[in-house]
Amino acid sequence: MKQSPRVLGRPRHDENAKPKKDIVLETATRLFIKEGYKNISMADVAKACNVTKATIYYYYPTKGDLYTSALLAMMDQIKLSILQILEESISFKDRLEKLVEIHLSATVDIDMKNFMREATINLSEFQLKEVQASENNMYKTIEHAMQLEMELGTIRKGNATFFAHSFLALMSVGYVKDREGKRIFQSEATAAKEIIDFFWKSVEK
Q: What positions does the DNA-binding region cover (predicted)?
């Protein structure tokens, strides 16, 4: 039986292997985290994946598409982690503290501010809107939790959007370093406790 011709440029697929598109995205994300957008080329990604540049371009027509997908994947993972923690059966304050600690630990090598700055500079208007929408969805997850806890009487009544953004702004303090390049908190656990103790004073009833 004659085999159907393979679509030009389409990578060979092993049914038992991890999808090549996923491997490309995961590899590119690691490279972007380590080196930044400008310092990584599609050829670098192809080399790290041990595939041809044609394979990379088959899945991601431009570096902007690849960078956008990397950002969206990271934000989706962060959102999923946030939801899982917020649904745990412990106090809201403990959930927030756990969320901060896990988030800081998981993103210790990721400079999200720099990721977003590079996105603003290098992505198209459409790609940037996709990233911003995903970022807003992360914020909405926290905002909805704040609103629910207000209704349950756990925290005082107020503006849930303000509470959520204040919480996220405080969480970013966990990344702050002194003049010698050392973080101001000795550990993520210490940072989480200090941040939530400070935040809780502003929202407790």
A: 41-60
Domain ranges of the chain: 1-61, 63-203
Tokens standing for residue 134: 């995903």
Under 8 Å CB-to-CB from 205, ≥6 apart: which residues?
Answer: 153, 154, 155, 156
Would you write out the chain's pLDDT as a tens digit for each of its 205 residues? 444 444 445 555 554 567 899 999 999 999 998 888 899 999 999 999 999 999 999 999 999 999 999 989 988 888 898 999 999 999 999 999 999 999 888 776 666 677 778 888 889 999 999 988 998 888 899 999 999 999 999 999 999 999 999 999 999 888 888 888 788 888 999 999 999 999 999 999 8
Q: Give 63-203's CATH code, choosing from 3.40.720.10, 1.10.357.10, 2.120.10.30, 3.30.70.920.
A: 1.10.357.10
Pick the CATH number of 1-61 from 1.20.1260.10, 3.60.21.10, 1.10.10.60, 3.30.70.260: 1.10.10.60
